[in-house]
Amino acid sequence: MRGHTSIQEMREAIKRAGRDLPIISQVARMGILDAAAFRERAAKGLPLVITWLIGKWPLSALPPQTLRDRFGGLHGCARVGDCVNTAFAPDLARFANIGL
């Protein structure tokens, strides 16, 4: 969500956006997608798991308890809207106060 001046305002916008989405009964699991297929899928605003990618993520090798111990106290924010084209936009840095 872009253009919000506070976390609370962003939370309210996320809630409003979520009300328009269908009820999710399962999360789609996708294999390798090219950029066009990923953008098409992401444009629907529904979650997906890219199965082949998870094993390449270094944190996936850590057991759940280690993840809880090391990162359980960190805060993050849900991303909705155009997070495909703007994932690393400079104006989002104000919400990324996580030092690993």
What this model shows, in words?
Strands 1-2 form a two-stranded parallel sheet. It is mainly alpha-helical. It has helices spanning 7-19, 35-42, 51-54, 64-71; strands spanning 28-30, 48-50. The model is unreliable at 95-100 (pLDDT under 50). The chain has four helices and two strands, in the order αβαβαα. The chain is extended. It has one domain (7-95).
Condensed summary:
By secondary structure, the protein is mostly helical. Helix content is 33%, strand content 6%.
Keywords:
4 helices, two-stranded parallel ribbon, disordered C terminus, 33% helix, 6% strand, mainly alpha, extended
Mean pLDDT: 76
Oligomer: single chain
| Global structural class | mainly alpha
* Count of discrete domains: 1
End-to-end separation in angstroms reads 24 Å
H-E order:
HEHEHH
The number of helical elements comes to 4
Radius of gyration, taken over Cα atoms and rounded to an integer in Å? 15 Å
Q: What topology, given as strand order, has the largest sheet? A: 1-2
Q: How much helical structure, as a percent, in the residues?
A: 25-40%
